[in-house]
């Protein structure tokens, strides 16, 4: 039977038996393992729906579902292809439910030279779609990002967002403006709520999320540098009797900082359970796997102190483990595999929104085709999946019947200019490093005379890679360990990707792929 699983392997995680008393059942962060930045969440009845940043990977804006806040299933996406008005930078979607409709307010760059970052909105009757895009709402001169919809004290809907002043070394503000009754346009005047004026906030405040409690609107936000190995992100909160202010910032800010396991926490949204508890779903880097896995989804309960200010986690840091919100055990699946027996590509697969690959699933194979001449001939077609830990082994089988000049590959993939992997083509198996679009062959061997070739990529700490192939008797190493610390773009994690390129109309056929933690016995075989 075909399987397609989201890897939920988390160091130190404990899966407790379903028979245990619900009060004693713990869950382990992350609840969204892998690259799910800027997560947003909404509850409708007994259902929780979430989405997250896509950046440059399509399909755009995942739609995830849960009944217990700790076990999530990817159910679809908002857009299969990018909206015609847009070109790139698909960030910070916020999912809301009002007017008996679902709304996703999102960020994207307009489709013209020097295009600005805009906020836009899409709507649907059902979170699984179909989604209707209503286009841009606003794009300030320095850019507008990180939308959040909220109802004010008069039950009127407003949109909050951040201007991207930090991109010009200028101040940033959290803004608010009233929404039209149907939620698809901005009306009335713009209002400034807060700006970056505290040392810990650095050159920005962003990622607003609001909840009304105890007569106050509490504005949660993030400050400082979100991304990369040298990130400085943290989260703070301000409050006001009225949505439009004036706001006072918590004197105990920031309310979320680093700990030994989770770094640079921030940019999330708030959900309230049916029994009235508040939870914050936000992102952070794992201290070991860091940028190579990406910003992962962390869940923490919001407690309300005697002074009226919110408290998150333990000692202002992300929880490693915590009581399960609905008393449900966490289902941990330690691997990902796909044998391509379904009738279409599984939802976990992604590709560059710049070029949608030509894909066919037939007779238990994935046929990946390079349909036309590309500027980057190494990667005429690419499909990839998120990594969820830094230590893993990925193995695939490719049929050894490529046309002359064609190459089929298994790569640790940052983007189309930065990748590191193993290629089969023209009778050879080659380790290729592509950095800033400059190729370098690191090792090469004659391909065995087999109908099917097994290729393997092994990762340590997310950025140290070894490559090998099956020669018919055992695994044969290709060269030495290769450094891939240049791979992830600043806002993304590394993907494991299947590729084809090298010649016009090249096609490769893959039998299956399996990605397992390197602690697994399978990974050591």
Cα-atom radius of gyration: 23 Å
Unreliable parts: 1-21
Number of helices: 2
Tell me the helix content. Answer: under 10%
Describe the 3D structure.
The chain has 525 residues and is mainly beta. Helix content is 2%, strand content 51%. It is built from two helices and 38 strands. It has helices spanning 290-293, 521-524, and strands spanning 26-28, 40-44, 47-51, 57-58, 60-66, 73-79, 86-98, 101-110, 117-124, 132-138, 144-151, 157-163, 173-179, 186-195, 205-213, 216-223, 234-240, 248-249, 262-272, 278-286, 296-304, 310-312, 321-323, 336-338, 351-352, 358-362, 365-369, 381-386, 392-399, 407-415, 418-425, 428-435, 438-446, 452-460, 464-470, 475-483, 495-501, 507-517. Strands 24, 26, 27, 29, 34, 35, 36 and 38 form an eight-stranded antiparallel β-sheet that branches. Strands 28-37-30-31-32-33 form a six-stranded antiparallel β-sheet, with no helix packed on it. β21 and β22 (310-312) form a beta hairpin. The longest helix has 4 residues, at 290-293. It is globular, with a radius of gyration of 23 Å. Residues 1-21 have low confidence and may be disordered.
């Amino acid at each position: 039977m075909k399987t397609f699983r989201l890897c939920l392997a988390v160091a130190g995680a404990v899966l407790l038996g379903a028979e245990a008393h619900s009060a004693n059942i713990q869950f382990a962060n992350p609840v969204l393992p892998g690259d799910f930045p800027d997560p947003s969440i909404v509850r409708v009845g007994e259902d929780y729906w979430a989405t997250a940043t896509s950046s440059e990977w399509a399909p755009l804006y995942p739609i995830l579902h849960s009944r217990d806040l700790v076990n999530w299933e990817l159910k679809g996406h908002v857009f299969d292809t990018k909206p015609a008005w847009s070109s790139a930078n698909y960030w910070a979607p916020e999912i809301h439910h009002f007017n008996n409709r679902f709304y996703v307010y999102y960020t994207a760059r307009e489709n013209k030279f020097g295009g600005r970052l805009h906020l836009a909105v899409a709507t649907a009757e059902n979170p699984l779609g179909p989604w209707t895009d209503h286009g841009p709402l606003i794009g300030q001169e320095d850019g507008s990002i990180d939308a959040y919809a909220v109802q004010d004290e008069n039950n009127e809907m407003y949109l909050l967002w951040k201007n991207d002043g930090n991109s010009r070394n200028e101040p940033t503000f959290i803004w608010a403006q009233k929404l039209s009754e149907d939620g698809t346009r901005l009306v009335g005047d713009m209002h400034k709520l807060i700006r970056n004026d505290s040392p810990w906030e650095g050159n920005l405040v962003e990622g607003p999320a609001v909840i009304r409690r105890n007569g106050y609107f509490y504005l949660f936000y993030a400050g400082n540098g979100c991304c990369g190995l040298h990130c400085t992100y943290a989260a703070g909160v301000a409050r006001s009797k009225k949505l439009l202010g004036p706001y006072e910032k918590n004197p105990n800010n920031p309310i979320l900082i680093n700990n030994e396991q989770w770094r640079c926490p921030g940019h999330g949204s708030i959900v309230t359970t049916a029994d009235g508890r508040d939870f914050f779903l936000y992102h952070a880097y794992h201290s070991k796997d860091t940028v190579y896995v990406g910003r992962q989804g962390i869940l923490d309960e919001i407690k309300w102190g005697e002074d009226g200010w919110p408290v998150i986690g333990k000692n202002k840091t992300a929880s490693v483990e915590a009581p399960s919100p609905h008393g449900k055990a966490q289902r941990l699946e330690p691997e990902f595999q796909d044998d391509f027996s379904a009738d279409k590509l599984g939802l976990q697969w992604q590709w560059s929104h710049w070029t949608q690959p030509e894909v066919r699933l037939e007779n238990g194979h994935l046929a990946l085709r390079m349909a036309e001449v590309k500027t980057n001939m190494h990667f005429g077609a690419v499909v990839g999946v998120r990594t969820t830990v830094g230590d893993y082994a990925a193995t695939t089988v490719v049929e050894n019947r490529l046309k002359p000049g064609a190459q089929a590959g298994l790569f640790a993939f940052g983007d189309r200019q930065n990748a590191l992997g193993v290629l089969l083509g023209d009778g050879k198996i080659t380790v290729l490093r592509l950095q800033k679009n400059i190729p370098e062959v690191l090792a090469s061997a004659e391909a065995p005379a087999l109908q099917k070739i097994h290729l393997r990529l092994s990762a340590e700490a997310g950025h140290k890679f070894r490559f090998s192939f099956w020669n018919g008797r055992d695994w044969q190493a290709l060269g030495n360990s290769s450094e891939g610390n240049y791979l992830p773009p600043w806002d993304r994690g590394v993907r494991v990707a299947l590729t084809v390129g090298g010649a016009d109309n090249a096609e490769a056929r893959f039998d299956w792929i399996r990605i397992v933690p390197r602690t697994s016995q399978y990974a050591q075989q």
